[in-house]
Amino acid sequence: MAGFINVIRSTISEIAGINDIAEVIYPAGLPAVVRPIAEEGVAILIDYQSPAYAQLYCDRLRRFIGRRGVDDALFCAIAHLLSARMSYLDPIRIAQLTLREPVGPDRGTAVDQRRFRLDELVSALPEIVGDPAMRMLEWVHCAHRTVPVRFSKAGIFGLKRLEFEAWLRHWRRLSTRYEKERVWVERWLHMIDRALTKRPDAAMAVVCSAAIVEGYGTGYRHGIAAWHQIIDGLAKPSFDGTLVITDLSGAIERACAVPRDPQGEQLRKVIGELRLAH
């Protein structure tokens, strides 16, 4: 019962903006060349979620200020990809973007229809609601089934539905999807830290590996699965000292370029070849 009450309190605080901040504070010592990218990232994340969420972005950037091996190019790549990953594409974001599209004679009745997996839709709900619903989907074996979702400003009903979906951003940070995204972003940042310590020559490749995780639906799932395959098969064992790859940067880049497939067999084969070649 206490856990339920805490969730309700968190939900009310999030919706009311009690946990928000008045101004985003940029980290001291942020390189001048990175500042415009960080400012763009902050603007995106305020629009995406809130100033408090944009502050989290700045706090995550702070860890790389003054780090050995972090030059301007690497820091710029981190700042750009971090804002992209923190503004992951979900139905809420698509509703937000659709509302911002101009309405003209040729767009007034435009309909944007996309296919989402059921588990992807449910994971956008607050955890207290989403977890039971997810278990039900898995029980009936339809969690991976895709369904069409329409995004359109045509008509008052379509407009009001978009506004409601966009309003659901207040619940985003309470969702199971947000928690999963938080964990993987932190793992990506941790792997950058380890690369800077163990294999500085591969740091840029580790940073850019985040670019393979994009979009939504099945494509997103394939991307995140591939990323973990690459990190677990090449980067992590190299940092742990259990695998020696002379050109780790090239190996990661080659693995990232492998076309996605549902079972990851092609990528698994390439990773195996790269491991045997060294």
Write down the domain tally: 3
- Beta-strand fraction estimate: 5-15%
Mean pLDDT: 87
How many angstroms does the end-to-end distance come to? 55 Å
Q: Given the structure, what is the number of helices?
A: 14
CA-based gyration radius = 21 Å
Q: Strand arrangement, largest sheet? A: 1-2
**What class do helices, strands and sheet pairing give?**
mainly alpha
* Uncertain residue segments: 1-10
Strand count, sense and barrel status of the largest sheet are: 2 strands, antiparallel
**How many DSSP-defined strands?**
2
Question: What would you note in describing this structure?
Answer:
This protein has 278 residues and is mainly alpha-helical. The protein folds into three domains: 1-87, no CATH class; 95-172, no CATH class; 175-278, no CATH class. It is built from 14 helices and two strands. It has helices at residues 2-16, 35-48, 51-62, 72-86, 91-100, 118-122, 127-139, 155-167, 169-172, 176-198, 203-208, 217-240, 248-256, 265-276, and strands at 111-117, 146-152. The protein has a two-stranded antiparallel ribbon with strand order 1-2. The radius of gyration is 21 Å and the shape is globular. The model is unreliable at 1-10 (pLDDT under 50).
Keywords:
single chain; 278 residues; mainly alpha; 3 domains; two-stranded antiparallel sheet; 63% helix; 5% strand; disordered N terminus
Layout: helices, strands, pairs:
Blueprint: H1 2-16, H2 35-48, H3 51-62, H4 72-86, H5 91-100, E1 111-117, H6 118-122, H7 127-139, E2 146-152, H8 155-167, H9 169-172, H10 176-198, H11 203-208, H12 217-240, H13 248-256, H14 265-276
Antiparallel strand pairs: 1-2
Helix pairs in contact: 2-3, 2-4, 5-8, 10-12, 12-13, 12-14
